[in-house]
Amino acid sequence: MPKKISKVLIANRGEIALRVIRACKELGIQSVAVYSEADEGALHVRHADEAICIGPPESANSYLAIDKIIDAAKQTKANAIHPGYGFLSENPLFAEACEKNKITFIGPSADAMRAIGNKTSARELMEKANVPIAPGKNDVDRNDTKTILTEIKRIGVPLLVKASAGGGGRGIRLIENEKEALEIIDLAANEAASAFGDATIFLEKFITGARHIEVQIMGDAHGNVIAFGERDCSIQRRNQKLIEESPSPAVDEELRTAICNAAIEAAKSCNYQNAGTVEFLLDEKTKQFYFLEVNARLQVEHPVTELVYGVDLVKTQLKVAQGESLTNLFPTQPTPRGWSIECRINGEDPFSEFMPSLGLIGSLELPNGPGIRFDSMIYEGLDVPLFYDSLLGKLIVWGVDRQEAIARMQRALIELQIGGIQTNIPFHQELLNNNAFITGAFHTNWLEENFVMPS
Ligand code: ADP
Ligand code: ADP
Ligand code: MG
Predict the structure, then answer these.
(1) Which residue's alpha carbon is nearest to atom 18 within ligand 2?
(2) Residue 455: what pLDDT?
(3) Residue 59 reports pLDDT greater than 80
(4) By percentage, how much of the chain surpasses pLDDT 70?
(5) In the prediction, which pLDDT does 129 show?
(6) Is 297 a catalytic residue?
């Protein structure tokens, strides 16, 4: 039986650690931060009730060190752990280590993670649950060239070779013709082995001109699963999301119901608990959608859903983790109101190939006023460490409709001024004024195919 959560250790850093600490504070729950030596001056360390240094800057010996994090939880008597996103959030061994030590893991079970954490097994499960998947071939044996070539003919080019354990936009390669296929598959398998410690790869039909549509789901310990509508994350560079919005300009009421129902089926097929995201590709012309993967954790872009659905997803995570029922928390199906857009503010230089640009934040002016939210880890004088990803914060706006949300984001992007390092703010400004963005006519390859950053 899940027990009441009194103290949460946050096994993460950056803006997401702060996000969780804030939810804990509002619920009267104590919080414990863990940090690496590179994060001594970080805001999550300052804001938490307690903070413990868990090792050197390298994630492998700090934010990814299961034993150290469990020790920190025991030492501080935290009875729950929130994993944030990235790092250990989708690691079943971590969920199991929590369970073994009688610490509530705020997320799905290790079994659910195993069932869907791996893209190949997720595809198999979805096929059984009648959730549509893109044509493809699972478990490709890189040495069996005969089968590979037969499968490529059957699926048709272009297609993708994907790492089963891949994530964060990495481990995906395009095969444009049969001639290059074997070479690319070999490369992909080698890369998958070194980047993710697992050489398993699979083939998937490349859905041209598709939109990335994902559904926010939440499951409780009583078998209930609800969906909080969709997010459109089609503005991507190198398969990484840059702008997300909810709702999607391409989704009407009928499609929303269909895609949310598919996401709920996907979640139920593995007894999914807590927050998760079911990702799909949508072919706008045919309205056909295809399952991509489940992200078994809170998502970077969860705030756009929060603003449109008037829900606090992190507080809901904490509540369902201690056994509360979704039917009590949400007696009626939550409905969307207005429009929300998020821009990921990264420390990278849009004028030179988005090269990482981290270091000392010399000055900072924050956006403000109606409908603006800035979830961030930066402050004036912070020396942003190079060891982690380049996300500095997320600028999120809400408006009564898409037009107001866009105008508000344009204003906020002018108000937000980060001095000392390069950021992608000029890129977002340019994009928010782009006609295709304004009319909503874009897909996952649109940015790379059509958008040029003026110098
Ligand atoms: P979202 O859809 O929430 O943006 P991403 O896939 O971009 O999720 O990943 C969010 C964070 O998790 C990023 O910091 C990313 O680097 C990290 N991440 C996701 N999957 C993996 C993985 N398999 N291995 C390592 N890091 C990952
Ligand atoms: P990750 O785990 O890195 O997030 P995903 O499988 O979710 O990997 O894919 C990331 C992005 O790659 C998608 O949002 C989409 O832009 C692109 N992509 C993935 N699969 C396909 C596909 N079959 N056809 C076209 N684009 C795809
Ligand atoms: Mg994905």
Answers:
(1) 239
(2) 83
(3) yes
(4) 100
(5) 95
(6) yes
Residue 373's nearest CA partner among 19, 2, 11 is: 19
For 125, 141, 152, the CA distances from 181, given in Å and listed in that order, are 27, 13, 8
Whether 167 is in the pocket of ligand 1, judged by its Cβ within 6 Å, is yes
Strand pairing category for 391-399 and 372-376:
antiparallel
Determine the residue type at 8: V
pLDDT digits (tens, 9 = 90+) for 369-425: 999 999 999 999 999 999 999 999 999 999 999 999 999 999 999 999 999 999 999
Q: Does the Cβ of 389 fall within 6 Å of ligand 1?
A: yes
Query: Ligand 2, from 137, 204, 235, 292: best to mutate by most atoms within 8 Å of Cβ?
Result: 292
String of DSSP letters for 47-112: HSSEEEEEE-SSGGGTTT-HHHHHHHHHHHT--EEE--SSTTTT-HHHHHHHHHTT-EESS--HHH
**Active-site position among 297, 344, 402, 408:** 297
Terminal-to-terminal C-alpha distance of the chain: 59
Q: In what order do the strands lie in the sheet with 225-237?
A: 288-295, 274-283, 211-219, 225-237, 240-246, 339-346, 391-399, 372-376
Q: What is the pLDDT of residues 286-306, one digit of tens each?
A: 999 999 999 999 999 999 999
Is the CB of residue 168 below 6 angstroms from any atom belonging to ligand 1? yes
User: Are 443 and 426 spatial neighbours (Cβ–Cβ below 8 Å)?
Assistant: no
Residue to mutate (ligand 1; options 214, 300, 344; most atoms within 8 A of CB): 300
